[in-house]
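User: I'm preparing a small set of examples for a lab meeting where we compare how different chains pack in three dimensions. I only have the primary sequence for this one, and I'd like the structure in token form so I can line it up with the others. Please keep the answer compact; I'll paste it straight into my notes.
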Amino acid sequence: MQQLPPSTIRLLSSSQSISSVVNVVKELVENSLDANATSIEVRLENNGFDKIEVRDNGDGIKTVDAPVMGLKNYTSKITHHEDLEALGTYGFRGEALSSICAVSEVIVTTKTSADEVSLQYTLDGAGHIISQKPSHMGQGTTVTALKLFKNIPVRKQFYSTVKKCKDELKKVHDLLMAYGIIKPDIRFIFTHNKAVVWQKAKVSDHKMALLTVLGTAVMVSMVPIQHREQEPEIFLSGFLPKPGSNPSSVSLTTPERSFISVNSRPVHHKKILKLVRQYYSTQCQKDSSHTRYPIFFLSILVPASVIDVNLTPDKTQIMFQNKEAILFVIEKVLISVYGPLPQPDEPSPECSPEAQLAGKAKVKNFDPSPTAEASLV
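Assistant: Understood. Below is the structure token output for the 377-residue chain.
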């Protein structure tokens, strides 16, 4: 046996972390969010394979940190493993920029409030600075990734079909919409080949963000929820389809508009999605309900110490320390909106105005335990 050379190790690990255009966009957008940006622009050319650029107006990168910004395991977000128990940032591994450097050509332009001018840095495949020059850009950071997967021809070939490229663009669009909802006070612009695909202005709250993203036709059929529990410590908020609402307005055949956020992080959680879908579908749809996914937004806030976000490279999978207790609280809220699930020998209620009124009454009359509070807002 022999040890692999550093360049090979770097490419193998980086190509596992950065497996698609949406991975690059996600990592860079989260860096922008961690830098307190209030405006984020995502620009793609040729579906992101020629160019991915994420520009923000955040804090910028200090000149003293620039030499190590592209090196693996350098981060300003944590100093020890124990810091994960109080994690307040999206990133923490110090791998994103390093991994992007290994699979593309990277240019970083940045300026802090203390800098007189911005500086543009060109990085090599190992994340080292190979050149720098002054730039005209204002405060914030712009990261440009050129020729993605130039050194991984099989992966580039995988994304060569029109369908794969369209799917990847849609994933980027969906990701930005999720952040647009979770972060209502941030302006987003998404362009492809210099044409605006989607944009969202800064708005005051989640409801306004959902109006912007989903539209009025959907939001008039949604009901807001809030629920706080002391044990386990959890705060739920969001919007669910009203009981009795038209399935064509508030459900789809795919879960792409089923938004779940844990501590402001968009996640995929099969059990939570199944639970919401089960209560909504059983109570408010007819025989085809099993083929539909409700449109909803559920924000879950819990102490950072009870979740593990370090499961997958893209951090979209999480593990709850007290999963069953949290699912029980979510189910309590779903019962307050839709009523209990029917027993196997009971027919499911039809989607009718009476069902909708009954659902509203259930929410209004919901009597939580002394340690909890639940309400419509």
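A couple of notes for your slides: The two ends are 64 Å apart (CA to CA). The CA atoms of residues 52 and 164 lie 17 Å apart.

User: Perfect, thanks.
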